[in-house]
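Exercise 7. Given the components listed, write out the predicted structure of the assembled complex. Treat all entries as one system.
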Amino acid sequence: MSEALGQPVTIVVDGRAIATFAGMPLGAVLHAHDAVLRHLPAGGASRGVFCGMGVCFDCLVCVDGRSDVRACITPVREGMRVERT
Amino acid sequence: MRVVVVGAGIVGAAVASALARRGHGVQLLDQFDPGSAVSGGSLACIGAHMIDELELPALQWAYDAWSTFAESGGYDMEYRRCGQIRFLTLASERASAERWVALERAHGLQTALLEPADVRAIEPALEGPIDAATWSPEACMVNPFLAVRAFVADARAHGAEVRSRAPVSAIETTGDRVVAVRVGAERIACESVVLAAGPWTARIAATAGVALPIVPRKAQCLATVAQPPTIRTIVGACKSEGGVDAGYTQIQQANSGQILFNTVLAGGISAAGGLDAIPEIDRAFLRDSVDTLLRLFPRLRDVELLRSWVRYEAVTPDDRFLIGRAGPGGLLVAAGDGGTGFTRAPAIGRVIADLLDGGPTPFRTDLYDPLRFAPAPIA
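Answer.
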């Protein structure tokens, strides 16, 4: 199992450092810490990883200053800065 | 009277509500779920602007009925009086726009023609080049799913029975009257049938020997991921004349924050079988609509698209609904939205209820005679 993992990396989520491995899906990494990634602007309902394959757009986060990035299909890189909304 | 209403889109739901409120025994049937087809795929706008001069009193009646229903407080349908802008890109379009403004003002509406600077005061994100725009401050938007559910709930609250996944395959007649509808092997006896099945209406009417000139017209839509409040009004191109061949564009921001883009292509009649498929938008539509959206609203450049969908509007040769009796006794038609079913739905409910009860309707109904296109009998 461990030989399938990439290099150890650190990403920053809402200012907090999280250790993981390069190439892991960002959605999976975030989900392991907190299933809630954001709240709908209308009504405030919780959203997180749902379809896991880039279709439902429920797992949108801000990555390195770019908003509306689908976490589930975004591979983790060293130093990536993630903000949940 | 026992009445079956076929189709639980916004029209069927409003008809069921109107009939149930008059004390009729209503069954509202949908082949899928309420609002799951054309209505749910709509950008539900309610207004009387640039639709039809002769229908203005009926449209204003429907507008007031929406206002009463939405503001009764019984149902949340995200009803919002946001106003509508129809932009002109060519100076040659001004004469037509000025004519619409004059006739709507003569009917008491507050329609106006605005210069670009005034348009931007109302809709600051509309920064693209336009020549002028019409402004209809009365226009409202409503959440299409919630609005259908509100009318369905209102029908239920007044005693109607509502059924999903109940596709009507045939209308049964005895002598010259309808006596039942068929849903698979099931027979539902009734004294009247109201066909409010949108683009599926002609097919069902044909089982009672009634030929209706309703054709499906492809409307294509895009939605972006939710954005902060950006577009305040309903933005559209000015009306191009001409029934089935007319095209239009509509842009607005839903309460969810998603920016919605809807285009009906001129002559976009569906391919055979398209109505019952799950169709995809055309590539050319995607390219053209993104170009249009960014030309008008350049600040949306980096926004992600979320989804796309297609619906089939039911269109008649003169862009007016077919509302009224047709064929065997007890058969009524309420279909032919031409993309304006939400606006007209309460008025259609009123007409159908008045026809069944024999009472007077407060606006013209002859414009909607379902048999107006039938060839005159040979003397």
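Discussion: The longest strand of chain B covers residues 259-269. Chain B touches chain A at residues 225-226, 228, 255-257, 303-304, 306-307 (CB under 8 Å).
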